[in-house]
Structure formats: structure tokens, C-alpha cells
Amino acid sequence: MTLPKDDAPASTAKSQEGITAGIGELRGPKGDALASWSVTINRPHGDLYTFFHDFAHLPQIMDNVDHVEVIDALRSHWVVKAPAGHLVEWDAIITEEKEGELIAWTSIEGADIAHAGRITFQDAGARGTVVTATIAYHPPGGLLGKTIAKLFQREPEIQVRRDLRRFKQLMETGEIATNARTTKQFDEEMA
Fold it and tell me: CB of 89 within 8 A of CB of 156?
């Protein structure tokens, strides 16, 4: 009897084949921690790929990303908020891309957080697109550092889930819902 293909997100796959299929060949520094999440977004995969491929857009959906500087077609410089108000930085390079389907990257040697990842855009017919983000990383400070990052809500496992939800909201509605006061609301209260 042949078992069905394991197409679960890599972090929940039950077999090594499922994990490999989920993250592919992550080039560069592979981490000992894995974060992965999938979401279905009611938009064509080409639209989602195009938005995500322009890394300068990503601070809109990635809460911890302070800014991204696109250096050239393959390289970018990232500045990300870490626990206790610290910033971490790295340069990343695209290691694989398939138009409309996937983008894979790895951090360049010397990164504050060594990691590699990929995001895939799989057509889901009338439902839109299944977007899966998977990141392999080395948590700074090991298990203690990972625990501290979780306490400050800055741990990649938490962030990938939240960031994909924000991506879904922005792509489906044109805005990201928040319970924070807007500048306009604050100004009205102060008047």
C-alpha cells in the first residue's frame, strides 16, 4: 500500500520526505529550529508572488521588520526588531525562484540570525492561493534565547503565523485590521 504524499507544512510533516518537500533544499546556514505556516488567500498566486517579491513591501505585513533595503535583483539588507528593543541585521540572497510559485533565500555569512527559508504560492482554484512560509534558523542564545524571544512575541514561529495573517488581510481587503489607535484617532482625542 502506498501512503498519500505528505503535503503538510514542513513543521508538521510526519516524514523526512514531507519536511524536505516542504522546505526543499534550503541552501546556506540551515537552522536547528523550524517555523512553518500556511494560509489560503483569496487572490491569484501571481498577484501574491508579485507583492511579496518586492521586499520593500514586506514591512507592511511583517510586524518585526523595521525595513528592507533591496540591493540588487538577488540581494537585500534586512533590519528586524528583536526582544528588548534591540535591532538585528543581515544580508540575504535569493537562492531559488520560480515566477509565481516560490522564492527561497538564505542569510549571508555573518548574519545576526543565521537562517534560510522559502515561501510558496500554490494555486487553490476558486479558493485562491495556498501560501506557505517555512524558515530554518539558529535562535541566538539557543533554547534560552528562543524562550526569551517567545516571551517578547519576537520568535519566528509566532511571527510567521501573524505575518501570513496580515498578508491575507492586506491582499483580500486592502488593509490590516488592528486594535491600535490610528494617528487620526489620537489627534481627534487630543483636540
Answer: no
Provide φ and ψ at 115, rounded to 5°.
Answer: -160, 170
Helix (H) or strand (E) holding 191: none
Q: Which fold has domain 10-190?
A: Alpha-D-Glucose-1,6-Bisphosphate; Chain A, domain 4 (3.30.530)
User: Any idea which of 55-64, 136-145, 149-158 has the lowest mean pLDDT?
Assistant: 149-158
Q: What is the pTM of this model?
A: 0.74
**Cβ–Cβ < 8 Å for 155, 53:** no
The neighbour count for residue 175, using CB atoms within 10 Å, is 8
- pLDDT tens digits, residue range 29-56? 445 567 788 999 999 999 999 999 999 9
